[in-house]
Amino acid sequence: MPNVSQIEVSKLSLDLNNFRTVPQKNEVDAINAMISIKPDRFYAVMESLMDDGYWSTENIIVLNDGKSNVVKEGNRRIAAMKLIHGLHKSDSFGLPESIIDKINEINKVDSNWKLENHTVPCAVYSLQENNMVDKVITVIHGKGEKASRDPWNSVAKARHNRDRGANEYGLDLLEKYLNVGRNISKQQKERWSGDYPLTVLDEALRKLFARAKFPNVAELVTNYPKIKYISQLEDILLNIGLEQIKFETLRNARLDFPSNYRIPPIPLTSSDTKPTTSNNTSNNTPSSTSQTSTNTTANTNQTVSAGKANSTAGSNTSETPPSASLNTTNSSNSTSTIGSFSSSKTKATAINDPKSVKKILQKFAPKGLNRQKVVTLKDELKNLDISKNPIAFCFLLRSSFEISAKLYAADNNIVTVKNNNGRTIDKTLIEVLTAITNHLTNNNADKARVKILHGAMTELGKTDGILSVTSMNQLVHNPSFSIAPSDICILFNNIFQLLEEMN
């Protein structure tokens, strides 16, 4: 049974292995993590304590290991108390001005508050009663009972389960991603370490592991980050955190969500697609011994027509029906191997054809917060006829790069201003895009992405490039500068990769 007693706040130690967060090095990091996960909740607790004092009915659950009193339940309350008492400097945690003002008021005016709240009621368990402590906090948080305490979310529950020996592969991957992920900001790391849609990630992994060439989820998680589709997986992890991917996305049979992230389907084996047998051929081909000369002539004409139909169908990307390759006796008129289905292939378009640009834009699906205008610009670009509206297309394209760069920089804490003779001014677009490219390629360490983005930055950075930032600026400001539609189509393919990576 616990020993209930009043203990000074200064003699209580925060649990650095609190299930709400990743393990922390010290109390300052632990408090920062708790604030980052749910700042409003933390500030509300602080204000309540300063307004009403600590309620004696709310026991802190403490585990005494013989040397210190570790808080196992009530870490947020004790963290708040330590800040109010000045045991940690309040200006190290980015607290709102209203909270700081109240703390200063307690220090300067309301001296009774500290006297009345320097101790808190604690239920102290010995180290031998650790199992009982675990059971108590599981009842309070793990089962989600409606109580005054904030129930554990999926991350905290998973950490608790893993601590008790369960496999939590989604949590393992999340924590690896928070440590080595290349597309995540510091704020996102702090917040997602304790509040992340982990159940969505768990379901997504079940749809991804085989397509990522692994026999099971455990192998995928174990091998990350040394996997083939690392950038695609990290985009998925990011968008789950941003709640762009939800259960509805994963469970919509019409949305093959991995394909949207350039993770191809598992190739079909030969046993999955059996060719038409020779018996089927004989059933569809009239017997030559039963034909009259008139029917033979008619049959020959049908064969020639079928050959022409197949040729035409191929040029229009429609699928050739199986019968068109069967009733034929002249191999020169046949467009597919007898006894097999002809493959349906999308017709290729020339790189200078406006259709190639439209195809790229149709597949472009901007993701992330505040991308609504990027989507609108994409739709307007897609609907423009480049051959008739080349300047308008470039105006919209320039806007797409400008807005995408601002959003990506904001998402990833990339500085977009610079000092100019004592004045702070905005960086040029090409300077921002260069910084973004360095971020995307991890300062050129990611050789695969360097290759992908090389063409984009080469073209955008040219002073005389047709679709360079300089030229797109000239289209806006120079009354005599123009551009040919064919040039747009060719060079759009070069610069699009960066636009896509920013979104």
Description:
The chain is an alpha/beta fold and 503 residues long. It has three domains: 3-152, no CATH class; 169-260, no CATH class; 354-501. It contains 23 helices and seven strands. It has helices at residues 27-37, 39-52, 75-84, 97-108, 111-116, 130-142, 154-163, 169-180, 186-192, 198-208, 217-223, 230-241, 247-251, 257-260, 278-284, 293-315, 354-363, 372-383, 390-411, 429-440, 447-461, 469-477, 485-501, and strands spanning 3-8, 12-13, 60-64, 69-73, 119-126, 417-420, 423-426. Strands 1-5-3-4-2 form a five-stranded mixed sheet. Helix 2 (39-52) packs parallel to helix 4 (97-108). It is elongated and about 80 Å long. Residues 144-148 and 270-344 have low confidence and may be disordered.
Helices and strands in order:
Elements: E1 3-8, E2 12-13, H1 27-37, H2 39-52, E3 60-64, E4 69-73, H3 75-84, H4 97-108, H5 111-116, E5 119-126, H6 130-142, H7 154-163, H8 169-180, H9 186-192, H10 198-208, H11 217-223, H12 230-241, H13 247-251, H14 257-260, H15 278-284, H16 293-315, H17 354-363, H18 372-383, H19 390-411, E6 417-420, E7 423-426, H20 429-440, H21 447-461, H22 469-477, H23 485-501
Parallel strand pairs: 2-4, 3-5
Antiparallel strand pairs: 1-5, 3-4, 6-7
